[in-house]
Amino acid sequence: MSFVRFENVSLAYTDDGPRAIEDVNLDVREGEFVAVVGPSGCGKSTLMKLVSGLRLPNDGYVYVNGRQVGGPLNLVGMAFQAANLLPWRTTLQNVMLPMEIVEPYRSELRSHRAEFEQRARAQLAAVGLAGCEDKFPWELSGGMQQRASICRALIHKPRLLMLDEPFGALDAFTREELWCMLRDLWQTQPFTVILVTHDLREAVFLADTVYVMSARPGRILVRREIDLARP
Ligand code: ADP
Ligand code: ADP
């Protein structure tokens, strides 16, 4: 039973424009860690938009959790290359943001604020940011900002975490630290991951299954299950 499924999906951004992705098939099980690799412009971000319902396909079908995607989904958490933390909010306030937006948290926030805040603190500790709750984004390093961004993406317990080049702006050492952090999170919390990256090493290090895309139009070239004895 697949959790995310693409059936022959194509998307062009304009009526007479080229297709950003063409005839893409994907099959992601619940709890799986999937990476999609390919060169810049091959349609990786387009794929993310289709999963989250920010775009609908021209052809084919996108299913998440057994339903055809028809609009933005609440069961998705997202993080991007830029951490996009709001500069006027502390780390804790940034992490709490989805609880102010996503139902049912939004309507329960007033009566459950202490409990939700406690959860945010625990999630911050899980990404190695205990003690940073009251710091502002400019007081955090790039790696710490990205940890906070992933923390924010997970705070409403989404079943699907989508990561678009989340470590692309980090130095090699920090990047590998965050790989380990992400893998630890994924091993202890029950969510499915779709990671898009142009870094094949990153894909192989992290994912159960790697899809390789070609450029223009984006097509899936290869699907490989990674079966390495991991440290
Ligand atoms: P990647 O994430 O792999 O770099 P994208 O999904 O961003 O690739 O882009 C795939 C193709 O679609 C590219 O040719 C890009 O120029 C085009 N594209 C992306 N977003 C838009 C948009 N909003 N309007 C028109 N074309 C777009
Ligand atoms: P909080 O709820 O944590 O007090 P908000 O994110 O609601 O903070 O922001 C409080 C107010 O500050 C909002 O009305 C927002 O419009 C304003 N604000 C502060 N700085 C900015 C900024 N850089 N860009 C846009 N709005 C800002």
Query: Quick check: average pLDDT?
Result: 93
Share of β-strand residues: 25-35%
How many angstroms does the end-to-end distance come to?
29 Å
Radius of gyration: 18 Å
Give the biggest sheet: 6 strands, mixed
Fraction in helix: 25-40%
Strand adjacency order, main sheet: 6-7-8-3-9-10
List ligands, each type once: adenosine-5'-diphosphate
Task: Show unreliable segments.
Answer: none
Structure summary:
It comes from Niveibacterium microcysteis. This protein has six helices and ten strands, in the order E-E-E-H-E-E-E-H-H-H-E-H-E-H-E-E.
Describe this protein's structure.
This protein is of the alpha/beta class and 231 residues long. 34% of the residues lie in helices and 27% in strands. The protein contains six helices and ten strands, in the order βββαβββαααβαβαββ. It has helices spanning 44-52, 91-101, 105-126, 142-154, 172-188, 200-206, and strands spanning 2-12, 19-29, 33-37, 59-64, 67-68, 76-79, 160-164, 192-197, 209-214, 219-225. The strands form two sheets. Strands 6-7-8-3-9-10 form a six-stranded mixed beta sheet, sandwiched between helices. A four-stranded antiparallel beta sheet has the order 2-1-4-5, with helices on one face. The longest helix is centred in the middle third of the chain and has 22 residues, at 105-126. The radius of gyration is 18 Å and the shape is globular. It starts with a strand and ends in a 6-residue tail after the last strand. Bound molecules: adenosine-5'-diphosphate (2 copies). One adenosine-5'-diphosphate (ADP) binds next to loops. Keywords: ATP-binding, Cell membrane, Membrane, Nucleotide-binding, Transport. Residues 4-231 form the ABC transporter domain. This is ABC transporter ATP-binding protein. GO terms for molecular function: ATP binding. Belongs to the ABC transporter superfamily.
